[in-house]
Amino acid sequence: MHGPRWTTADIPDQSGRTAVVTGANGGLGYVTARELARKGARVVLACRSETRGREAAERLLEEVPRAEAEVRRLDLGDLRSVRYFAARLPYERIDLLINNAGVMALPRGTTADGFETQFGVNHLGHFALTALLAPALLATPGARVVTVSSLMHALAGIDLRDLGGGRPYRRWVAYARSKTANLLFTHELARRFAVCEADVVAAAAHPGYAATGLQTAGPRAEGRRVAERVMRLGNQVFAQPAEAGALPTLYAATAPGVRPDSFHGPSFAMWRGAPAPSWRAPWAKDDRMAARLWDVSARLTGVDFSPPGA
């Protein structure tokens, strides 16, 4: 554990740094963007809904009046949107890329490109975004890529023969596979950065059980009112607030000495509390599977990058 007293007050000065935070209009992403802005970073709120993004930016400026924040549309479920976002981002250097956005336990659906929604949004969208922003990250000494996974990855490993969420489709299995994919992606990204001796850290984090709105989105989409009420009650009784859930991400993004391919989460039973190194399932750090998933992801998205010398 890194000590029970690590809080947002311990975030080092971020003045002069640029941070891109996906899904920054609410929940963990909003808190992450707000606290980075509070410490002086220029934050790009990358949001699927520009309206909700602008509302979040207004709220952020009320809480942090001197914040430097901008909103840019990014739909991780549409690779054209990902390419457009990356091409229009005016910064040649990016210090922090926080792959935070995600969907959870949705009914079966597909992205604009025909991929199962959870795998497409949670993994493939972020894979493509990171690859497209890699030149700006590599041009920035000390840059970091932090991808938000989940303890739910422990439910299932990746099956490259079936990226559609299982036959028959099981929403929680599909979610778990997408979160395993986040960790395998981090594992292979860290390896590639290490091979070429790039000064970029790829790390992962998870919020434990945090009330973010993700829990109720799936049941609400299907009109399952009882399930929605159960999830909402669970958030009220058991979950920690988004402010606490964002701490592992902020730690991974800013704390000195964060190691490549590390995985941080809450310290108490990996559920709540101060940031600490987190357990991960063996299949989430499998070298061979990480490399295979990378190759498949590059083929599916049409986006790839190998750092010079990798």
Automatic annotation (TrEMBL):
Keywords on record: Oxidoreductase
InterPro entries in UniProt: KR_dom, NAD(P)-bd_dom_sf, SDR_fam
Domain of life: Bacteria
Gene Ontology MF annotations: oxidoreductase activity
SMART domains in the record: PKS_KR (SM00822)
Pfam families: adh_short
UniProt similarity note: Belongs to the short-chain dehydrogenases/reductases (SDR) family.
Name listed for the protein in its UniProt record: Dehydrogenase
Organism lineage: Bacteria, Bacillati, Actinomycetota, Actinomycetes, Kitasatosporales
